[in-house]
Amino acid sequence: MEGYGLFLVLLVSALLLGFLSVLFALIWVFHYGEGLSWDGGSAEFNWHPVLIITGFVFIQGIAIIVYRLPWTWKCSKLLIKFIHAGLNTIAMILAIVSLVAVFDFHNVKNIPNMYSLHSWIGLAAVIFYTLQLVLGFAVFLLPFAPVSLRASLMPIHIYSGLLIFATVIATALMGFTEKLIFALKNPAYSTSPPEAIFVNTLGLLILIFGALILWMATRPHWKRPPEQNSKIQQPNGGTPEGTEEESTMTDCSNTDKSDVEFNSEAAARKRNLKLDEVGQRSTM
């Protein structure tokens, strides 16, 4: 892998920033807010930022770069697909629960819904993310879609995934500002009280985390290489997904072990053939 050291530095930095973002979100709602609850009050609203940051930002970011982790390249690509889909499913569920929390809070407090740009873009991001996940399952995970369809939709799938992730980051930043403007009255947000500085720092953490994820996901030399040992010819002369076969889910270490055993067996056969040939010549 070219630039392996740089990749590790960026990966560790992104993971650290992601964990810090989740930690900052919890400190925000417990130290500056009323904690977490499901009672229609402010504590219920607090589920919204916590779940968005945890699922829609952090977990979605990890799901994007799971294909780029070099120590998974010897694993079955089908296994990595299941991990990718599973992480995105968790992120989607957390995002939907966060929307339920904020709508329920607004309805209890008689606050209008869907009037701000933050709410418009946020709801659109959740809808498109859900569609992206469903289509991803149907086209790339289930074995029914033809190879030509997968190949034509893959660039769109990648681009829309990155676009949705970037949109989520931007929407979260808008949400932070909107929440602080409404919540901080005395002292006002404009006077930069401790909570304002703390949440602004949280926004910077999320922004840098998103930038690192997008950088790692768009470097062509960090892309997962095509599988070499699992190619099989199909009736049409190609392989699944146009380039490689989806092998069954196996442990990565088992793959290396089976290759070694196969090579040793082949060498033993060659030695036995040579001994047979020598024996036949000696009897002639």
Please outline what is shown here.
This protein is mainly alpha-helical.
Mean pLDDT: 85
**Given the C-alpha coordinates, what overall shape results?**
globular
Number of contiguous helices = 8
Q: Which spans have pLDDT < 50 for at least 5 consecutive residues?
A: 228-250, 255-263, 277-284
Helix-strand topology string = HHHHHHHH
> Which structural class should the secondary elements be placed in?
mainly alpha
Distance between the termini: 55 Å
Helical amount among residues, as a percent range? over 70%
Strand content: under 5%
Q: What's the alpha carbon Rg, rounded to whole Å? A: 26 Å
Q: What is the count of β-strands?
A: 0
Main β sheet profile = none
Give a description of the structure.
- 22% of the residues are buried.
- The protein is globular, with a radius of gyration of 26 Å.
- The protein is mainly alpha-helical and 284 residues long.
- It contains 8 helices and no strands.
- It starts with a helix and ends with a helix.
- The C terminus is likely disordered.
- Helix content is 71%, strand content 0%.
